[in-house]
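Re-run with default settings, no changes from the original entry. Doing this only to confirm the output is reproducible before filing.
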Amino acid sequence: MIPRMFIWLPAKAADLRGYLIDEDDIHSAVLVPLEVGTAIVFARPTRLRDGMALAEAARAKSATTGVMFLWNDRAASVNPVARSLAPGWDWGTDEARFDLFVRPDSLGLFAELLCRVLDFFQTSRSGRAKQVRAARRIAQALHAPADIVLAHVRDWKNGRDVVVDLLEATGKTDLARVARQVDTDSYAVWHDARDLPVVPLVND
């Protein structure tokens, strides 16, 4: 389960609700209208594959490109949602990232071994060309300055508060507010939602 996750798309909440209301993966998801676009917020920890499926359905049916944000207390991942979930960037130590995505402590020794094998083959995140490509993809999807995104990408060892810091630095203040409210479980009251309710963004 991913502890904290939301998706942003530059589409209206009413349109997204119409596109997605019959999808199988909308349980516990709510729509938060923003100044530009809509956040699809998961009100409780959600399986990564369910979040990815909903992100792809939203992108395909709205014909837009969005961004998916996932994080816990020690790691974060930001990925464009284009024709598929495009490679973005991960922050945090390898151990923290694997805990975010795989949670080997709850999946047994085989999963832990698999994580170590994947880690061995992981391309270094310190390569400048790779950082520039990832920053460009994220910036384009988020409609944000690439140089500001790149500065955050280069600080890849720090996995704390990445999502809020990145959104505030790029001027996405309403998205940063959503992230802070996800951090404080402000949407938990909607954990049993099954019909994609539209929830107004409130002040922190």
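The mean pLDDT is 88. The two ends are 26 Å apart (CA to CA).
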